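Entry 12.
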Amino acid sequence: MKKIINRKLYDTNTAEFIANYCYGCGGDLYFLNESLYRKKTGEFFLGGEGGAKTKYGDTDGDSYFGSWDIIPLTEDEARDWVEEHCRADEYIEIFGEVEE
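Predicted 3D structure (tokens):
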């Protein structure tokens, strides 16, 4: 999937895959499938899809449905996402050692 945001291209096919988080089953209202990517420039972004009751939900005015999107992240936002959705050893592998 690719999208241009603020005149920058975000492409899941050319970016480095970092990690994935999935919750629920496709078609569920709360289904969520997100992957964290890093561009060659070092910028992070999420490529994700989700059900109608997630941040990826969309509407046509009459009904709500699931959709997909690409969301640019700052490094701090990427760190927060990894901290929430990944194991400690994965965090260290991505960002390096942290203080005890």
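Annotation: The first helix runs from residue 75 to 85. The mean pLDDT is 95.
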